[in-house]
């Protein structure tokens, strides 16, 4: 799995739904159904990782977990839109990218692995800070 595949799957699953639900919250049943679909897909993704070995399996599992977290955050944002929900989506994407990057770094050795992990952490911290600043700007505009 790659980041592009994850992004494509999420875009296909929820891309058009965002505008449809932006004005109104989802019904409880629609929300439950969507959440169940996300969980079923996550189980299938995790099961697909079982056939892999070594770090490829760890990367696959990290991608599956990230995909699930992002999809759930996007669903919550569709159900209850707002700056807090937008921030959560950005944070989940950053966290997912970070976890995947850390696992990919495990394929390297020594200083290269340390540098890789450090770069991943810097990128994660940057996105976290940007997401929080964006929410703070939005909150300030409301005041």
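Sequence proposed for the structure above (143 residues):
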């Amino acid at each position: 799995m790659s980041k592009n595949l994850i992004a494509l799957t999420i875009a296909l699953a929820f891309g058009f739904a965002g505008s449809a639900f932006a004005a109104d919250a989802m019904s409880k049943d629609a929300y439950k159904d969507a959440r169940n679909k996300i969980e079923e897909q996550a189980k299938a993704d995790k099961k697909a990782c079982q056939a892999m070995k070594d770090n490829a399996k760890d990367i696959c599992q990290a991608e599956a977990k990230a995909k699930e977290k992002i999809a759930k955050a996007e669903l919550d944002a569709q159900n209850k839109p707002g700056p807090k929900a937008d921030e959560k989506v950005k944070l989940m994407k950053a966290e997912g990218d970070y976890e995947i990057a850390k696992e990919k770094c495990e394929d390297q050795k020594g200083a290269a692995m340390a540098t890789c992990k450090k770069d991943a952490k810097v990128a994660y911290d940057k996105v976290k800070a940007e997401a929080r600043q964006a929410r703070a700007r939005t909150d300030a505009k409301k005041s």
